[in-house]
Design a protein that fits this description.
Blueprint lengths: L9 E12 L2 H8 L8 H14 L1 H4 L10 E9 L4 E13 L4 H19 L7 E11 L6 E2 L7
Antiparallel strand pairs: 1-3, 1-4, 2-3, 4-5
């Protein structure tokens, strides 16, 4: 584990994304809340928020940090028959960033959408897992160049 004890605590934020391509039939099931396992978007949102809090248990050598806020937004993209996921995580003050928490949150949200829909189709794909932005810390701010089209 990297020693961060000499780093100054700063407010940290990170936003990550993922896209779950469902296909037209499964997309309609999700949109109409007709998936047999239940409300896909609500369950996946909750899974993503919980995942952010449990990141150090899943990722070896990842620091345990106090998360001040975690949220997940899931948007239905009718043109691509996809669920577009954005996960945001914030700390009040920390000595290390929250990029891993945001990426874990987006990934687990996408996996939950997949799990809840897999009975309807095995052709579901997860793409575009990426860090969209981050603020705070020694390395400063970051903004993914093409954040308009995940």
């Amino acid at each position: 584990m990297v020693d961060v004890s000499d780093k100054a605590p700063t407010r940290r934020t990170a936003v990550a994304q993922a896209v779950v391509h469902l296909g037209p039939d499964v997309f309609n099931l999700v949109r109409n809340n007709q998936v047999k396992k239940g409300d896909v978007l609500s369950v996946a949102r909750l899974a993503g928020i919980m995942a952010a809090k449990h990141t150090p248990l899943l990722i070896p050598l990842c620091h345990s940090i106090s998360i001040a806020h975690s949220d997940v937004t899931l948007l239905l993209d009718e043109q691509r028959h996809a669920v577009v996921i954005e996960a945001a995580v914030t700390t009040a003050l920390a000595q290390t960033g929250v990029e891993m928490e945001a990426l874990t949150s987006a990934s687990v949200t996408a996996l939950t959408v997949y799990d809840m829909c897999k009975a309807a189709s095995k052709g579901i794909t997860i793409t575009d897992i990426a860090l969209v932005s981050k603020t705070g810390g020694k390395s400063g701010n970051y903004q993914k160049p093409d954040t308009n089209s995940p």
